[in-house]
Amino acid sequence: MALTETKTVDQITVTENGTILYREETRIFKDGEQISQKFHRSSLFPNQDLTGVPAQVVAICNTAWTDEVVAAYQATLAAFQAAQEAQLALQQRP
Predict the structure, then answer these.
(1) What are 41's strand-pairing partners?
(2) What is the DSSP string of 16-28?
(3) Mean pLDDT score of the chain
(4) Is 94 a residue whose pLDDT tops 80?
């Protein structure tokens, strides 16, 4: 009775703002017959640390995350944070 496990990245998507979405599929086999299958989804944001990320996903990130994409993503985050701070300031006014 030999159990084996395979893990593959079976989906990679690049969104408009540079976010990378990927899905890993894990299959368990017993004596060559599949007995289990599960999926794990992950997301990565421009300029995020890629330690531990599968190599084919890293390759897509390195291609998609141009300097322009990273700058646009960071500008969007800064604008969102400024809007949240302004809203919080309005809520705290007497």
Answers:
(1) 23
(2) TTS-EEEEEEEEE
(3) 95
(4) no
* Dihedral, 71, 77, 79, 81 alpha carbons, nearest 10: -150
Tens of pLDDT, residues 25-52: 999 999 999 999 999 999 999 999 999 9
Q: For residues 36 and 27, is the Cβ–Cβ distance under 8 A?
A: yes
CA 48 to CA 58: how far, in whole Å?
Answer: 11
Q: Of 32, 30, 64, which Cα lies nearest the Cα of 45?
A: 64
Query: Under the phi-then-psi rule, with left for phi > 0, alpha for psi from -120 to 50, and beta for the rest, what region is 44?
Result: beta
Tell me the sheet residues that pair with 6: 27
* 74: three-class secondary structure by DSSP: helix
Laid out side by side, the sheet with 33-44 consists of 3-14, 20-30, 33-44
Query: Which band of pLDDT confidence, cut at 50, 70 and 90, is reported for residue 90?
Result: confident
pTM of the model: 0.81
